[in-house]
Input
Amino acid sequence: GDAAGLRASFRGLDMMLEQGVNVRVVSFPEGEDPDSFAKQKTNEELEDFLKSSKKDFISFKTTVLLQEAAGDPLKIAQMVRDVVGSISKVPDQIGREVLIKEAASILEMEPNALYEELGRLQGIQERQRRKSQAQAPPMEVVPTDYPGDQKIYGHEQEKKVIHLLISKGTDTMLDSDLDEEEVVPVAIANWIVDELEEDHIEFLNPIYAKMYNLLADEIEQERIPSIDWWVRQEDQDIVKEVTDALTDKYTLANWKSKDIYLPEEKKTIFTLVRETTMRMKYVHVERKLHALKDYLKMESADYDYYMVQFQKWNSARQMINEKLNRVV
Output
């Protein structure tokens, strides 16, 4: 089609990418549409043409826009942003990496330049998501007597992470997993947020989700909320959680009752922080596995796909169990 028609189709296909659809595009000869072209071909000829002519959407879009740019540096820069914008819609990380490399090859650019733009776009998308959640009307807090499996729901694990962020967020700790010469003190809040963001962990409890998003916004501005900052919040549900966090028995001092002793307090707190965060990751994995089990029970489900996903998440669960020294 013409340029306007192609751009309109690009917008629609972006929406399909966002839903995880593996989009393929076929371009018909000039002056032909699918109906007229099909009438001139046998079924076998049409099938051969479709197989040999199909391209993945990103490669097709990159090629078309590159031709339109015609060597104009400003148009090429805009075109790169446009292509990477489409790639950012792909929900699968591996898929995004493959498409980045394909686009970079067509553009004869280093993939790192496209990765930088992708990171910038994802940062914008994440900030918009947080703002929309913060502006959403208050949601009903899910009761603690959740009817499903309590381990899968993970209310307590979310609570422990939030309480740590409130009571210990500004404290620093040493990463005892690193060699001594590599150890640099890190703020607990920064470490936890980095860990959760890396694995796209979300809070299901609405109050905890709101508190985490507020904290993440502050950290994005290179500010770590102090206890005073938390106490000054106007939301009374948040203030209640802050009060609970400051009186929580789940403190470093309480570890003595569990016969846990390490020579340095900053390494001891690292153990507490790491295990608390890992337990929340475990909950996230359990939720995924629980959902996949439901999908596998559906008659219309793509069994092979969901089984591969189940095995992947089950491996993640085993890895977390090993880090937590659990025997399963």
User: Anything to note?
Assistant: Residues 136-152, 249-266 have pLDDT under 50 and may be disordered.
